[in-house]
Amino acid sequence: MSISNHKAPLLDLFSSEFKGKAYSFYTRLRENEPVYRFMLPNGQIAWLITQYEDAQAALKDNRFIKNPHTLLSQEQMNKLIPMLERDLLINNMALSDPPDHTRLRNLVQKAFTPKMIKELRGRIQEITDTLLDEIQDKGKMNVIDEFAFPLPIIVIFEMLGIPTKDRDQFREWSNVIIEAITIDIPEKMQEALPKIQSLIKYIGHLIEERRKDPTEDLVSALIQAETEGKKLTENELYSMIFLLIIAGYETTVNLIGNGVLALLQHPEQLEKLKSNPELISSAIEEILRFYGPVELATSRWAGEDVLLHEKMIRKGDMIVVALASANRDETQFKNPDLFDITRKNNCHLAFGMGIHYCLGAPLARLEGQIALLTLLRRMPNLRLNTDAETLKWRPTFVMRGLIELPVVF
Ligand code: HEM
């Protein structure tokens, strides 16, 4: 991988191998070329922003926008998301700008406040214990499939009112979809299309059922907003449900998985946490900084020309804020490659910043805390059941998450 700005190299940011060496690559970029021009597989020119200060500023800079429709031609848009169904998936707050963003976020904000989330503590603990009851006597498990995946998906499904028995089906759909829609590789898109259609059909059935028979869940509340106040169009309703499902578990699976990995790779930190469980809040913040689940997903579009580090980011170019790089920036964090669960002033950017700051942060933090503490209490002899070289990261642009994490206890 050369660091050159003359041409735009096609960066292999997607493979499992890249994830293994990503942090040293980011370090070189921060030092040598902090705003780095590269090409995405669909031919789109993008700029990787790697320093902490620039990342923070870019996330708050309203010259960088989320919805590119005013910047790109129909042909370019089709190249970007070449599918008929896109209107049903992408009309969500994460891909919109004010005033749409403000309206959409306000509709669900109430359900995700720290106070509302606190009320879920008992239920999250119950789900965690039930999952571990099923595993306890086995002596080994794959943390990702058996623990880190079911916990957040059951929680978000219960909030939305989706039957939890359908969770494996969702996982299969979303694994393919998330890769396809975030990197726009045409072949991946073709592969994903039938899954996208199945998912849309499923959401359609759910909406129909709740229209006939409303309950206390979030989907019913959103349908009410759609029918009553014209606050939400039908496309936005589908897109909101899709976003909440995907954002609600894809990331938290990796917070739990990466957290277990980081602790098992640093036995002295693990012991410290076991004997001082009150360190759990700062341990979660350090996991978010050290192995943040969202590595590069935070893309935006330049709404006008922007000059940064002597590089001209042209109107219509994409920028990708490398949160994983910002979170290891030595100008912000002392010994950034050190995993230290007692780290102070840990102002990491793992949940983003500005108006798109993660809506689900209080929920993710609570799930992460309960999951890790309960796991360590109930399985105090937890050990990795594989060597570091055989660990495989998921080949996705967006996330940092393991394909599997075998442990014994
Ligand atoms: C936005 C990370 C869990 C819902 C974001 C963003 C990041 C992020 C970095 C900002 C993206 C940007 O600026 O482009 C994470 C991480 C999580 C997590 C690391 C787990 C550890 C959750 C959960 C939910 C959620 C549990 C619950 C539904 C959302 C939503 C947005 C968002 C709806 C869009 C907010 C907006 O555009 O205003 N998340 N997230 N996230 N997250 Fe999370």
UniProtKB/TrEMBL annotation:
<keyword id="KW-0560">Oxidoreductase</keyword>
<protein>
    <submittedName>
        <fullName>Cytochrome P450</fullName>
    </submittedName>
</protein>
<dbReference type="Pfam" id="PF00067">
    <property type="entry name" value="p450"/>
</dbReference>
<dbReference type="InterPro" id="IPR036396">
    <property type="entry name" value="Cyt_P450_sf"/>
</dbReference>
<dbReference type="InterPro" id="IPR001128">
    <property type="entry name" value="Cyt_P450"/>
</dbReference>
<comment type="similarity">
    <text>Belongs to the cytochrome P450 family.</text>
</comment>
<dbReference type="InterPro" id="IPR017972">
    <property type="entry name" value="Cyt_P450_CS"/>
</dbReference>
<dbReference type="InterPro" id="IPR002397">
    <property type="entry name" value="Cyt_P450_B"/>
</dbReference>
<keyword id="KW-0349">Heme</keyword>
<keyword id="KW-0408">Iron</keyword>
<keyword id="KW-0479">Metal-binding</keyword>
<keyword id="KW-0503">Monooxygenase</keyword>
